[in-house]
Amino acid sequence: MDELIVNVDEGSHQVNLNLMNIASDDDDGLWESACAAEEVQEGDDPQKHAYERKPRKKTSPIWKDFKELLQSSVKKAQCIHCKSIIGIPASGATTQFHRHLNSCIPCIAASKKQKVITFDFDCGSVGSGSCFTYDHKKVRVSYMVVTCHFVDSWWHLQKRVLNFFNVPPPHSGVIIADALQKSFIECKNENKVSTITVDNARNNDVTIQILKDDFTLKKTLAVKGQLFHVRCYAHITNLLVQDGISQIGDIVDCVKDGIKYIVVSEGRLKQFAEIAKQLQLSYKKLILNVPTRWNNTYMMLSTALEFREVFPRYEDRDQSFRWVLSVDDWVKVENVCHVLEVFNEVTKIVSGSNYPTSNLFLPEVWRIRDVLGKKSKDANIYVRTMAEKMYLKFEKYWGECNLLMVVGAVLDPSFKLKLVKFCFPEIYQEPEATRNVEKVHNVLNELNGEYVDAHNLTAAPNRGHQSNSNSASSSSDGSSSGVQRSTKSGMAMLNFFVRSVDTFQPVKSDPEIYLKEDVYICDEGADLKFDALEWWKSNQLKYRILSKMALDILSIPITTVSSESTFSAGGRVIDPYRASLSTKTVEILLCGADWVRALHGLSKSSNLDEPSLVEIDLP
What we know:
alpha+beta, 13 strands, disordered N terminus
């Protein structure tokens, strides 16, 4: 037998092609072996087996892992992996064989090995076989994305993916903190970090504490790090809603399974649509549940409410359909949807902008707190229980005053302190509400003082440089005539005087002047379209220092949506056919694509993103 082995290396996939050709010279030997298989033994009666019933063909796939044998004239099956022997029942059932394979360790180990595809083909008069082996390595690689948010010189909010790199396990807080520190140093941003926004994982709290201590030693954090740690608003909202939906989990599962049963068949969907037409229902769509999106569950339930009269009538036509809610269950769904409707509207407002600024969140947090407070006193027990459970989660994450969210609202000229004075008595009890208002005043003044000091430090070297340049130009002019003169021109002296005015402290600070003025009244219906950054751009000459502070505060993200969208893009880069890309190549592809889009003003194609709703149109 001749054997030819060809190794083809394609990236990390190694393809082994084994071709085995049976020699055709020994035709006599092949003929003798074939004849021996069909030879009739001497003394055998040819009519002996003529009327015997043929044995039944074994079609079960378990016989690939078992072989039949005789023990004391009794048929039994032996596992080819562990050599265990199991009796064969007279009925031919194979349940015990499947049960054995599920617990057979050698069989499980063999199933995880390289998969082999075998096939036969004819090549002239010579029989030959081929075996093609494909090794696809599925290695689980953990990545972390670092996204930077800032405002450019045209006062446009910008986002860039700085790093998308591998973080090997274990993913403890210390390891994540070290990985972030290396990322900051690599990008030369170790002294420019003001805040970090993360979700509510426990290891992230350890990470933030380590980084906060490091940056505090360097004295690079504003107001002693009180604004450094930002919790993801979207993640907290998701936790609140998941706690609420869990109170009617059985009802949600019943609606979800019923819709799945209907949409899986075109005939069932047509029958369902006919009943809806007979009842003259205007709604023409069903929505499937997406477990990773809580608002999709709300849309599924609210849509199912429109067809509440269709489901029992469909049950009369299809005896296999058993997912019908009672009248009381539909009332529960309706009451829960009233609560979730508020969360859905809040999510729309926050996610309606590509880059929501920090001033948008405080009104929505107050709205959630107000709804939960009212529903905690609802007459329905299950609504009251749901609201109380969600309220406990609310107090856990937003019970303390979120300074970044509040300062962002104060720097919105359409809110200022009026929104804080309106919301805090609703969110907090006295005297805590008054203390939190004072706390916001103190933080705002302290933050402004730090920006004033930074402004004076940068202005002083510029004034010295301007003075030296004026002296140098004067001496240069004098040297041309051979006489050294230190006399300044009138324009240079005037410019020096104008710049020196910055050192004089005004009677009132920028925050005091800003808060004394009336709020900006938006046109009716244009509240959600108001751009706070555009207002500060127009008033930067009036508030030279406060506008810089507003620029930094409003650019801080309170959600991790942008980072999650980067992971969605990463899922399209690292697909099952490109699972072996090196981590450096993945980082180049994702970071490079993000920066190229920003450079040329391109936007992501929306049809590549995961659809927010799975809608099924009724025929």
